[in-house]
Amino acid sequence: MEKLNFKNKTILAVAAHPDDNDFGGAATFAKAAREGAKVIYLIATSGQRGSNDKEMNSEKLANPRRGDDR
Prior knowledge:
The protein is α+β, with helices and mostly antiparallel strands. It has one domain (10-66). The protein is 34% helix and 17% strand. The longest helix has 15 residues, at 20-34. It is elongated and about 50 Å long.
């Protein structure tokens, strides 16, 4: 198999949930970034789901995932 050249490439990783790209392709994205690619994650939801914490609500869960400190 021919080796991929990631130098000066842009990779757009599209997923519905915040951790989907990590579970599906983290090793490839990390390798590409190390080799000079720009890796962009596009997440199609606000991350308001996915906690077993009974004290957590949708807004509190989504805020840090959006980078919002509220």
